[in-house]
Amino acid sequence: MSMTVTESAPGGIMGRLKNETAELHVAAERSPLQAALVRGVLPREGYAAWLGQMLFVHRALESALASAAKESPVVGRVYQDWQNTAPHVEADLKFFGFDTAGAKPGAGGREMIARIERVRKTNPVALLGMHYVLEGSKNGGKFIAKVVGRVYGLTQDGLRTLDPYGDAQRDRWAWFKSAMGAETFSPSEQDAMVEEAKAMFNAVPAIGADVMAGR
Fold this sequence. Notes:
By secondary structure, the chain is mostly helical. Helix content is 71%, strand content 0%. It has helices at 12-20, 22-29, 32-39, 44-71, 73-78, 86-96, 107-122, 127-152, 169-182, 187-212. The longest helix is centred in the first third of the chain and has 28 residues, at 44-71. The two termini are 19 Å apart.
């Protein structure tokens, strides 16, 4: 799962999300697990373990977004079911023969899951900041999938998490950018989204470290 997020808008919430998380974005991409994935040197088992850990985060965030969408028209206009990544992760893990029933989140995952729940209860619009990170990561994921596919000998099965949209990637990202840009967020809402995007970027190296350490 690549953490590459691309966005060129100079202002608005998307501009703030890009500019104010830039350093953390780079740090996440350069974390040991992400760097190994990009270089094509992460063992197949390590990749499956990473997916297993991220599944907990995707499930938690998507559940929180679905709940928030029922109460917040703003969230409901930006978050759509077709953006859900958890089903793709589950399909990849099934392909790799990974036992999701016996898996448990590590320390990094538990911390992020708890944060998602707190934000869901206190400021659900801010969940869109976390959503920005994971939805945006699919841009780079499409290219990383080529590396992973070559290294692991895969074509489609096992790569659904990295490249869920296929040829529709550009259109899906354009839709997300447009949906976010169409909303009028207050300064405090923007601040909260940026803060939660930072939290998600921080979670990536933490979860990766857990996987690399076998925790």
